[in-house]
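note to self: dont lose this again. the chain is below, predicted strucutre after it. 155 aa total, dont forget to put it in the shared folder this time
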Amino acid sequence: LGELLVDVANYSHAHNGPGVVLVGDACDYYMDESDGRRGLLFSRKRHAPPPEERLKDAFIRALSACRLLEGEEALKGRLAFDGREVLLKIVDRLETSNSDSFLETIRPELEPFLKELYAGAPVELTRIGSPKDLFSVCIRAGAAPSVETLLERLG
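---
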């Protein structure tokens, strides 16, 4: 992954929990099982790039981890990520709110990025959760590109 990784924690015993966590200095990667669905959760903790690069950086790091997991020999045929759906959460309660108005605030930045990522295929943004939750938006694309294709589109 090209970064300092410091620990691995296994929470797979916790029902619908964080699964296995790869702890890094700047970022953490989770084989997440929240809501009874398996996926990869990426979280940046420190050393973030400038604001205008953060979205692309987060997607590249998360997709790179997905590619590595899909390519792992022990997981062949047992793990594949669906490129059509992404859950984007922003962990900053001071600057964000889980509201439709905040979604409209970030839409001008998010939509052009997603247009590039999904090569112009239709994309639906649906805010999820209650106002007490972290800002969360489900991104659903009309096309189902592979993880490799998504990474290629991001350069």
